[in-house]
Amino acid sequence: MLRTAFLKTAARPASLATRRCAMTHAISNPTLVDIEKRWEGMPPQEQAELWMQLRDRMKTNWSELTLAEKKASYWIAFGPHGPRALPPPGESKKIILYTLAGVGVSFILFYGIRQFARPPPKTMSREWQEKTNEYLKEQKVEPITGFAAEGYKGAGMVQSK
């Protein structure tokens, strides 16, 4: 237990020294040249390493950063890549066409189903609904505000034209 604690404390200063060393040295210009064009093609591991190096450099005084490091840091943080990438050309046209195609297919499907559906029930005919009104008046349904009320002028059960 004492030996592991000693090893942990002995290892810390070395890692801090290498971190400080990494922070004080500028990242080489060939690494940062045309980062805008190369970023998407870089492997994720290399992207992460470059970002970590830039992050460590940004922890120091910003006046010590080179112009290329500042530009690369800004572009990696806020550039149009990943979720902020610009949509490919013609994407909005494709979205509109697929939406219209979906609406067209649903329209055809709706009317296709209606063509093969059963006819409306006989209770939906105008005659049936008028006879239902007469029956409800004879039975004196809703004598205060409904069919059997004096001077009732509503349509009653008639819904069909």
How would you explain this protein's 3D organization?
With 161 residues, the protein is mostly helical. It contains 7 helices and no strands. α1 crosses α4 and α4 packs across α5. The N and C termini lie far apart (93 Å).
- Helix and strand content put the structural class at mainly alpha
| Helix and strand run | HHHHHHH
Measure the end-to-end span. Answer: 93 Å
Report the mean per-residue pLDDT as an integer: 83
The percent range for strand residues is under 5%
Helix fraction, binned, reads 55-70%
Unreliable runs: 13-23
Count of individual beta strands: 0
Biggest beta sheet summary: none
Radius of gyration: 39 Å
Q: Gist?
A:
The chain has 161 residues and is mainly α. It is 60% helix and 0% strand.
Features:
161 residues; mainly alpha; 60% helix
Blueprint (SSEs and pairs):
Layout (H helix, E strand, L loop, with lengths): L1 H23 L4 H4 L2 H4 L5 H15 L8 H12 L12 H25 L10 H13 L23
Helix pairs in contact: 1-4, 4-5
